[in-house]
Amino acid sequence: MAKGVWIVAEQRYGAYRKISFELASTARKLADQLGEEVGAVLLGSGIEGIAGELGKYGVDKVYIADNALLEPYTTDAHAAAVARLVKEKDPSILLLGASVQGKDLSARLVGKLATGMATDCVDVKIVDGKLLALRPMYAGKCYGEVVTSSFPQMASLRPNVFPAVENSKTPEVIKFDPGLDPGQLKTKVLEVQKDTAGKVDLTEANIIVSGGRGMKGPENYVIIEELADVIGATVGASRAAVDAGWRPQKDQVGQTGKVVSPNLYIACGISGAIQHLAGMGTSKYIVAINKDPDAPIFARADYGIVDDLFKIVPELTKEVKKLLA
Amino acid sequence: MNIVACVKQVPDTETLIKVKPDGSGIDEVGIKWVMNPYDEFGVEEALKLKEKFGGDVTIVSLGPARALETIRTALAMGADKGIHISDPAFDGADAYTVANALATAIKSIPHDIIFCGQRAIDDDSGQVGAIVAEFLNIPQVTLVTKVDIEGASIKVIRPIEGAQLLIESSLPCLVTAQKGLNEPRYASLPGIMKAKKKPVDVKDAAALSISIDVKAKIAKTLPPPARPPGKIICGEDPAEKARELARLLREEAKVI
Amino acid sequence: MKQGGGSNAPIFLKNRCAMELSKFSVGNEGREVFWNAENFEGLLFAFTAVALAIFAYGLYKRWQMWTALGKPEVRNDNIQERIKLFFLNGLLQMKTFKDVYPGVMHGLIFFWFFVLIFGAAFDATEFHIAEPLGVPFMTGKFYLVFSFLMELFGLFVLIGVFMALDRRYIRKPDRLGYKGEADNTPDDAITLLLIGSIIITGFVIEALRIHVTNPPWEVWSFVGYTLSKAFAGVDNGTAEMLHKVMWWIHTSIALGFIAYIPYSRLLHIITTPANHFMASLKPAGNLEPIRDFETAESFGAGQLEDLTWKQIFDSDACTRCGRCQDGCPAYLSGKQLSPKKFIQDVKTYLLERAPLTVAAKKAAGKAGEGAGPEIPAPEKTMVGEVIDLHELWACTNCMYCMEHCPASIEHVPKIVNMRQYKVLTEADFASELQLTFRNMENNSNPWGIGSHLRSDWAKDLGIKTLAEDPDVEYLFYVGCAGSFDDRGKKVSAAFAKILQTAGVSFGILGTEEGCCGDSAMRGGNEYLSQTLMQTNIEVMNGYGVKKIICTCPHGYNSLKKDYPHFGGNYEVYHHTEIIDHLIATGKITLKKPVDGLFTYHDSCFLGRYNNIYDQPRTILASVPGMKLTEMERKLDKSFCCGAGGARMWME
């Protein structure tokens, strides 16, 4: 009889990623509704010291495998280890983060565990003793409520959506043998190239801050770059700015530049001509800062500020810095 | 080289998505169907490998009759043959079921490398590729932006938060394609005409001898939470407006 | 040109020499046609025969090249219309005069031909036919007028030649070069000097004759007469010897000129008028659709052979005048493309490829039945190497080149055909254009905005779709810009309001409307454009649409001229034609005055393509308070905005 709400925690270089706490808190909430325990699986090398930390967020048991073959992350090693343990312990719910690593691992686990999963959920709850997961589909144009008939019921949670709620417990730390056979590990991480100061390519960026004709000159992009640094964004530009020689062509967002689809697009001093919209119209959230109240971009923006961008942007940088501190 | 590329027919990203009033799914009337954009990267990479190493490219797709058009598109780009898995029994199938079918079809042909899109833009689920790899008992590398094949191994680059990883894997393996891997080619007109004659093997569930056991079901499809029309943020001074914007982005939109 | 008889001449000629001066008198003016050149006839005929043979050989070789390659095309239908074009453009040179100074300059040189014809032919006729038959006509008043005209023509030619030399070698306008470098060839100088020297030697010969024979009426030959004063001190014997020498020099140069024609730019004497005769009688901007998609191996023009023979022949009618380049928006904005260079590159390529083809066909002919000609593969690809891709894709299809070409060359269809090759056969073209094509395929508009949003601009305006009410007089075809572009939407709404105010019966297609396909077609994707057009035609014919109004000049042109190729035959109006009519018939009156200075930019697709120049101006003139000024480049010389030819979608 499947029992227990489990998570697979995610750590990198010996520190938890924030999603792990969001997972733990959510698992705690679900477990309380079911009257069950929260278990966490922690994999890595030299990570014994951080195992107890998960107790702060309500984890009852931390199952830890500390093995050189588990660092860095490879699908083969982690999926084999987690699947082996899950098959043995039979939790009823298994949650992972919908991070890059989490999506990679959770999908493989679905195969290994012959079960079902709801990816990238924005809400999970217990209904009639079963996990009901709410997730966006069609790029957020509609949502689906997913129920899984098999165990464990799997779900991956979208980062930054679920709260990390402190709920101190002293967890039991249980070591387990991942049962890894080096011969079965077919992939190897050869190199880690750290991104320079978060300069993700525009087409892959999560957040983009763009400047247009309203920037008035190349030297003024400093304020955009500062906001981008603080908020973790890549800097983009409209065609007007590129044509004027203020920004390189590779920064251009638009019909004849790059087509982007970030979660957040902040357009500063951009009027929102159709050619620009064709390049960023599918952004999840659009913010427009422009002193022209008739700028077409306001019709498409989720949030707009009609004001001088040279006043707003530095203030925004300050505020975001405060929030993220 | 025996290359396989899986494709899925999905609604165009700009098509209006209407949820059926009974919540049983979306209304398919008036939808413009296209190849899943991420699958296009996979097909293109497959074709590039064929051009480099020789061999052939097989397109595998699970979908209703209309999905054949998408397979033809891939054939027009230069792939050699297709396998179309089509059976009403697959309606409402979950990732595990779909992957089972695809893997069974792929098992029946020689395969050195398999390409899938990192996710399909309709269900945004992103599971099928990995589960196919599990069924075939081969390694997977996901969200790949660069592929290099040397001998019996493959080296890929894939992003992770804040970094790029260079990963090596043995072959055969499954690769899920991410945007930036390549620029999919436009099918030439002679290609489109030739594609009409390339062989496409149609298989139903019985032909694959698999049983269908759907575990994850979409109990209900809902329209998105009502998005308020764009807000113009007012305030006494720029500082106040900026503060309010930051707060909304954090608490309402949850994007920072 | 003056010809002479010889001492071995038949007896009646000999007797004529004796008649010499006594033959003519005041009241019976004339001159001895072959004075002082009696012995030359045999040699003259020999020389002439050689010159003509060289000419014929050259022309034959060229003819072989023109007929060696190229797909078939019919350009000899509707002969009456073609003769008219030949007359207007070939003889009257109407197109050349569009640019006044060079038009006049060329016109003056062109008079050379009247010199040649009148001088040579009349003289020959008089000498060989009229006089022996006893009916001389170059006498009396006729002779005086004839002489005067010949002087005048000769002088005109000389002025023209000097104007040309000055223009090419001293003023050096940009159009006689490329990017600031003059593109003069020795041939340019040679032809001008040939013509100039023939005239000058002709005058010198005349001067010497007048000096010796000195009849009083020769004052009518005013140039020769004046020049003869320079020989005042020269005795007759020397003068006659000089005359003979000059006579041969003159004759040699003239015969040399004739022989030189097929080997030089002078070939345009034949090719350009032929090109006028073979000009397209189809509506301006017509592009021939590709009909066979199923079985053809290749589409568009990848090799020279893929163009039609006429398209290839065009390049031989080009004299590098450069008017096309002078107004080409691509060239003037710093791109590599020059229509002149484009045509010349095709010509150079023709001269390389055609002889190989001719030789191969000959070899195949010798090899016997069934042996196909083995034409050596080209060393260079036409599209990509002969014609650089940057040049190919820079064209905006504005048709300035074609409008102003005095040789009726058709540049734009060649460019579109080459683009078709890159797009349809090779699928090798700019990625922005790929995106545009996909957007058109998936959402029937180049921006890729959801097709279900197409008629949102008309929300709340009370406009019915044809689905709601098909019983209307006009279909207002809105187009993509009018449906999705912010400024375009304002135009659509404003025009709809005008129609409603005027009580015009109209409807729109709403979300059933699709992209007109113009950008796809001119961007080389004929397959896509035909798909779009046929989809629209099916919808419009389904509603029984007869009359259409468009605001977009590109949509207007496409519906009017391209759609009939696919079964879409409608009366298509541009909205300025409609508004003009509404104002003229008092259905609407403009009341609100405007302030400020306005000007009107002639859209290429309205102006050069469809001759709509007046209506917008008439409308503007009826706006109260309108102060309208005209730009320097206006009407058929209007400067393209740069967005046509699918350029709008490209970087």
CATH architecture of the largest domain in chain A: 3-Layer(aba) Sandwich
What is the assembly state of the chains in this entry? heterotrimer
Strand order of the biggest β-sheet of chain C:
4-3-5-6
- DSSP, total strands of chain A: 18
Shape of chain C: elongated
Going across the biggest sheet of chain A, name each strand in turn. 7-11-6-1-4-5-12
Structural class of the helices, strands and pairings of chain A?
Answer: alpha/beta
For the record, give the distance between the C-alpha atoms at the N and C termini of chain A, rounded to a whole number: 44 Å
Distance between the termini of chain C: 59 Å
Could you give a short account of the major beta sheet of chain A? Answer: 7 strands, parallel
The CATH topology of the largest domain in chain C turns out to be: Fumarate Reductase Cytochrome B subunit
Structure description:
The complex is a heterotrimer of chains A (325), B (256) and C (651). Chain A has 325 residues and is α/β, with parallel strands linked by helices. Chain A has 2 domains: 180 residues, HUPs (Rossmann fold, 3-Layer(aba) Sandwich), CATH 3.40.50.620; 123 residues, 3-Layer(aba) Sandwich (Rossmann fold). Chain A contains 8 helices and 18 strands. Chain A is elongated. The two termini of chain A are 44 Å apart. Chain B is of the alpha/beta class and 256 residues long. Chain B contains 7 helices and 14 strands. Chain B starts with a strand and ends with a helix. Chain C has 25 helices and 8 strands. A 4-stranded parallel beta sheet of chain C has the order 4-3-5-6, sandwiched between helices. In chain C, strands 1-2 form a two-stranded antiparallel ribbon. A two-stranded parallel ribbon of chain C has the order 7-8. Helices cover 52% and strands 4% of the residues of chain C. The longest helix of chain C is centred in the N-terminal third of the chain and has 32 residues. With 651 residues, chain C is mainly alpha-helical. In chain C, strand 5, helix 23 and strand 6 form a beta-alpha-beta unit. Strand 10 of chain A pairs antiparallel with strand 13 of chain B, so a sheet runs across the interface.
